[in-house]
């Protein structure tokens, strides 16, 4: 387990972040998946929980004031963005992996012989992995999916124009939603706008499922796709819950 350090460069240190940001008990399947990350990636793993998040918050870069009102899912969406900007390194969802990540770090660390510097590495996104952006631009993203990286496992260099734009757009959205989030905080880990709550009423929670991650990440990475590297870093997507 990697201890927190506010001056850490997790890309240089080849550290992979995993997040479990709510009070929910992790299922047996998730526990087994987490073990594969520790066992198989060959990298240091920083496993962050709701009890340890504060240890990773930089004194000069507090979490957004919306943090306490977010669902566990949206906390993880926000935190991976925060970590990639301030620390860089790897991130993976808690899904089973059999892959060594050292070669992927090596690939991103290689000097760029020509063209723009590469700032991030991920697996090739699937067309059906971008259902949340609609209209002509959404169609363009889906046609361009082979140039984009997926959301579930990636490596970023820290403090780049890419991570800065990602964090800025994420926090700008939270600025817009803050008052509504205070009035209607999440009440369960998968809360989202309009989902039926246990009482049968649609949720007034003001964030759509992909609004804080995919709806920002995919358009941004399309804009900056010349800075991306594609590599088969994806975990298994089978039976992870």
Which features would summarize this protein structure in a list?
Spore Coat Polysaccharide Biosynthesis Protein SpsA, Chain A, 6-stranded mixed β-sheet, 241 residues, Capsular polysaccharide synthesis protein, 6 strands, alpha/beta, 6 helices
Could you describe the 3D structure shown?
Helices cover about 30% and strands about 15% of the residues. It has about 240 residues and is of the alpha/beta class. It has one domain: Spore Coat Polysaccharide Biosynthesis Protein SpsA, Chain A (Alpha-Beta Complex). Strands 2-1-3-5-4-6 form a six-stranded mixed β-sheet, with helices on both faces. The longest helix has 23 residues, at about 160-185.
Secondary structure elements and pairings:
Elements: E1 15-20, H1 28-40, E2 44-49, H2 72-86, E3 89-92, H3 102-109, E4 120-124, H4 135-143, E5 149-156, H5 161-183, H6 214-223, E6 228-230
Parallel strand pairs: 1-2, 1-3, 4-6
Antiparallel strand pairs: 3-5, 4-5
Helix pairs in contact: 2-5, 5-6
Order of helices and strands: EHEHEHEHEHHE
Structural class: alpha/beta
Averaging pLDDT over every residue, what do you get?
94
- Provide the low-confidence segments as ranges: none
- Count the helices. How many? 6
Q: What's the number of extended β-strand segments? A: 6
Q: Measured on Cα atoms, how large is the radius of gyration?
A: 17 Å
- What's the architecture, going by CATH? Alpha-Beta Complex
Give a nutshell description of this structure.
This protein is α/β, with parallel strands linked by helices and 241 residues long.
């Amino acid at each position: 387990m990697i201890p927190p350090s506010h001056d850490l460069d997790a890309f240089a240190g080849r550290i992979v972040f995993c997040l479990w940001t709510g009070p929910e008990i992790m299922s047996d399947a998730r526990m087994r998946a987490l073990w594969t990350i520790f066992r198989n990636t060959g990298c240091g793993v920083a496993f962050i929980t709701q009890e340890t998040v504060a240890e990773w918050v930089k004194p000069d870069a507090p979490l957004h004031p919306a943090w306490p009102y977010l669902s566990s899912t949206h906390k993880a969406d926000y935190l991976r963005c925060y970590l990639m900007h301030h620390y860089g390194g790897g991130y993976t969802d808690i899904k089973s992996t059999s892959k060594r990540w050292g070669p992927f770090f090596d690939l991103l660390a290689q000097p760029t012989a020509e063209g723009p510097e590469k700032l991030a590495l991920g697996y090739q996104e699937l067309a059906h992995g971008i259902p949340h952006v609609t209209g002509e631009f959404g169609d363009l993203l889906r046609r361009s999916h082979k140039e984009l990286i997926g959301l579930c496992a990636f490596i970023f260099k820290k403090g780049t124009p890419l991570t800065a734009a990602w964090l800025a757009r994420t926090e700008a959205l939270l600025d817009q939603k803050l008052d509504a989030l205070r009035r209607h905080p999440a009440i369960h880990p998968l809360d989202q706008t309009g989902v039926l709550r246990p009482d049968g009423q649609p949720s007034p929670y003001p964030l759509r499922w992909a609004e804080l991650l995919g709806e920002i990440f995919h358009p941004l990475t399309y804009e900056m796709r010349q800075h991306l590297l594609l590599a088969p870093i994806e975990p298994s997507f089978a039976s992870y819950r």
